[in-house]
Amino acid sequence: MVDIEKKNPWGDAETPYEQIGGDDEVRALVEVFYDRVDASAPSLRAMLPVDDTVSRQKLYEFLSGWLGGPQLYMEKRGHPRLRMRHLPFPIGEPEVDEWLRCMDEALDERGVEGGLRSFLGDRLTQSAHHMRNR
Question: What SS3 class is residue 75?
Fold first, then answer.
C-alpha cells in the first residue's frame, strides 16, 4: 500500500499564512485592500475614520492569525468577535459585495492564485456574509 500525503486545500505549505508568503505579504494584501476601499468603495470608506491607519493594522493583525500565522489580534485585543464588532455598521448585501470586490482585486494585484485563491475566496465570502446585519 502506497502512503499518499494529503495536500492542504490551499497548497503545499503547512498554513495559508505560509502559502501566501508570511508577514510581509499579509501586510501588503491589507494595504492594497484598503487602497481599493479608499479609491472605489464609498460605502465602506464612509464607515472608516478619516485616518484608517488603525483599521489597516487591525485587519493585518486579524488576517495574520486567521491565516494560521502569529495570533497578533488575539494577543493585543482578545477574541475578534467579528460579528459583534461590526454590528454598529450598516452592512447589507451591497456592502458585502463591495468588500468582497475590493478583497478580490487585492488578491488579484498580489498574485494570489490556485488552491490558495479558491480557499481564501470561499472562506472570505463566508465571513463577509456573516457580517451582514441589514
Answer: helix
Rounded to 5 degrees, φ, ψ at 124 are -70, -35
Q: What is the DSSP letter of 52?
A: -
Domain residue limits, the chain: 18-130
Enter the pTM of the model.
0.92
Helix pair 93-109, 23-40: axis angle to 10 deg = 130
In 3D space, the residue among 57, 39, 42 whose CA is nearest the CA of residue 109 turns out to be 39
Per-residue pLDDT reduced to its tens digit, 46-63: 999 999 999 999 999 999
The total of other beta-carbon atoms located within 10 Å of residue 73's CB is 20
2 alpha-carbon distance from chain centroid? 38
Decide if domain 18-130 falls under CATH 1.10.490.10. Answer: yes
